[in-house]
Amino acid sequence: MVTESNSRASTAESALKGVGTASQRIRICVLSSIGFTLMFAVWLMFGILAIPIRQEFGLTDVQFGWLTAIAILNGSIWRLLFGIATDRFGGRRVFTLLILATIVPAYLVSQASSYGELLFYAFLVGLAGNAFSVGIAWNSAWFPREQQGLALGIFGAGNVGASVTKFIGPFLIATVPVAGYYGGWIPGGWRFVPFLYCLMLTVLAAAMWFGSPKHDHLPGKGRSLTEMMQPLRDVRVWRFSLYYVVVFGAYVALSVWLPKYYVDVYDLPLQHAALLTALFIFPASLLRPVGGWLADRFGARRVMYWVFGTMTIATLLLSGPSGHIVINVHGRFDADGMTEVLPFSMNVYWFTFFVFIVGVGMGIGKAAVYKYIPEYFPNDVGAVGGLVGLLGALGGFFLPPVFAFLLEWTWIPQTTFFALLVLTAGSFLWLHVTVWRMLHVASPHLQAHFENQQS
Fold it and tell me: Does residue 3 fall inside a structural domain?
């Protein structure tokens, strides 16, 4: 019993210190970041592919929403288990197996001949989204506490993979003939993109297995599943999960929804819509290391105040529907007694600017949320990070259908951002109430002091 306890303590201490040479840690960070980037591109490829698919199969807005969301679902529901598995068996094994499990579904997407098949294959290929939990637990086990915010931020910048299809997709769809090559063995049109990803995943699996250190850190080794799940009872875990829905789940949803929004609302061609969407994806992904550095220096709580405040203002402006107020004033102004006041219309330039601001907030906020986890749960990053990632990604699954239903119900496309406004403002309120309670408990004497001051 004493030996087992000492072993567990040693394992936990190793996880905290980040045992291993600097070169090993760098190799893990680089390989996991590249792997996450490609897996993320595969996971969210339907944000672009679904537009030509909609034309080919004649999909409705709701069918379009489900097609973009179904892959997100499978990339969400297993995140907790993959996080725990990484702590117990090592990131090298789990990451490689996850890549191998994604190769065949990626190929099957390129061969789908009906909407039903597409939904099924999209669900299977969505397994790629679970790479996040694996990489978070893997990097946390290797890096010391004072470097975890930056390391996790660098890894998390792999979210930029969402823009890969935005850049290469429209070009490949337009360039590769629909009939494909070699008698159709290499598919063409939109089908060439998942086929190409299939080949790239094969190369990635080999690089991950042979390029990463053979020895791995296993902070969950020797611990029971019940013990590893114990921290999930803490309400803070669920609060962090809601924060992650705002900064990650909404990011995923907008990544697949914005191309359609630009095409339908601003009548832009797919290529232009994809490029403008990338202006949202870049800050929402590449600023993640900056968010990690800021959280290391100033604390995650202070960073999240600025993130939620900025996003609340931006989504409030984006949620305003284009139009005007009509006032009935008989005998004046127009012959029919009606006049239009307070006209409001956001052009594509202002729209893109405020969406960019939302992306900046999300990029910084994603790293700040995950800075909380090793601070509060240093020995349970796999389980806690897995649950936070699971619930955050589930937000990305539910939001596209919500956007579609709100659009069908109101015919107002800006309801997309009204939904995000409600979600962001609610999270901001919970954060503020939590901080207020902490300060009240820590310094109750200050409240009486301030109340008795003459102003």
Answer: no
